[in-house]
Amino acid sequence: MKRIFITLALILICVSAAAAQFWYIGNTSDGFRQRIEAIDVLVMKGKFTDAAELCGEVSGDWDKTARLMDALLIHDYIDRITLDLSLMKSHLDNLNPSMYFAHSAAAKKELASVKGSEYPEFDNIF
Fold first, then answer.
1. CA–CA gap between residue 61 and residue 111 (Å, rounded)
2. Does the pTM exceed 0.85?
């Protein structure tokens, strides 16, 4: 009887940890996508200085977040997002909005892909 309770407790711990990871990854990726969209709006308005400043903040916050997400997810996703965020900042500093928007779209797509990789679907589990 003890084994059943221990097994159920371990299953509950695993399910709780998976739910917490799913919630964290989903909310974090959504938050960063919203922040990138806010930078997009600033760039469209021609406020490159404000956009570059906000992009630097987002990039710094991402570096902190990426350490934890790197332990939970495939490293390629995290590395590509980190690279795109740093390139976004450099293109804003060089006043190159077309290249900024290319990397912005790529970063948003990768963040959506990160969130999608956490859905409890057959392909993601196996």
1. 14
2. no
